[in-house]
Amino acid sequence: MLKTPIKSTINITSSTIVIATFSVLTGCQTLSNIPTANTVNTAISNPLTAQMSVPDRQGHIAYVEEQGVGTAKISTLYSIRPDGSVRQLIDQLNGYIYAPAWSADGQMLAYSKQAPREHPKIYIYDRKSNARHLIVNAEGSNLSASFSPDGQKLLYSSTVGGNADIYEMHLSNGSTKQLTTLPSTEVQPSYAADGKSFVYTSDKVRAGRPSIYRYYFGTGNAVPISTGSYAASPQLSLDGQRMAYLNGRKAAVMTLDTGQITNLAETGLDEPARLSPSGQYAVYPTRTSRVSGQSGGSLVIHSLSGNTSYAISSQAGGVVRSPVWGR
């Protein structure tokens, strides 16, 4: 079981970070394992699943499905295989669940959840013990967690004095270090696979106009990644050659050494793409189902080499958000 860090002593305000504005549990509890019926037999209906590498094919895609609006909002966190099988309910609440992120070994899933009249808190779900642990409960908005490659640390964004900055926490004891101190908004950190840097979103050049930067731990310096437009929510591939992100309003993937951008789709949700463990596939959500006979949103899995895709429908006809593909 993970050690649950003591409550942070950082003085944090209660404002909420949502990238679009640039534009209850404590301790440890065991969850019931609730598999649900498959929505679509994608292993039969498309050839992509069979062609995937083992880490991709046997991996898990975590995503959020939302039902209702306002105070009636119900958010459910699921994991599912890329072939549409073994859909499992991980967490559910009256409120919001944000930005799930897998550890490198696929055994832990970090995410934020916000119950009504409460601030977003960061939890970690442990697949092995089937338990979840409250990790960050500082006053304010605690969002966009990212595991270090060794699983020992966690990056996340949080508000201090009404401002959003990036922090790094040691999971063994809860000690936390603030990494960014600018008066602008710094959010959505994501570790590189070698652990020497991370990418994140900032509007430090122009308020309300986010760009992507890369922070190097060795120097403490951050350099911009040229995308040419509004860009947010970056994620690097494990080999460091590609970056998935939100390009304007489109889910996109960039090849970093050439700067070539592949726009996958305008999702209608301002949601980014996320890469598979091999970096050869991307997953993103759409507002309307692309599965015949199904209602609600979909997960779309796209081959970056073959320019083909298939969809997995939502479980209960809700809005699909924030898919992320882990081992």
From TrEMBL:
Instruction: Please name the InterPro entries in this protein's record.
Output: 6-blade_b-propeller_TolB-like, WD40
Residues that span the membrane, as ranges: none
| Coiled-coil regions listed in the entry | none
The entry sums up its family as follows: Belongs to the TolB family.
> What is the protein name given in its UniProt record?
TolB protein protein
Q: Which organism is it from?
A: Psychrobacter aquaticus CMS 56
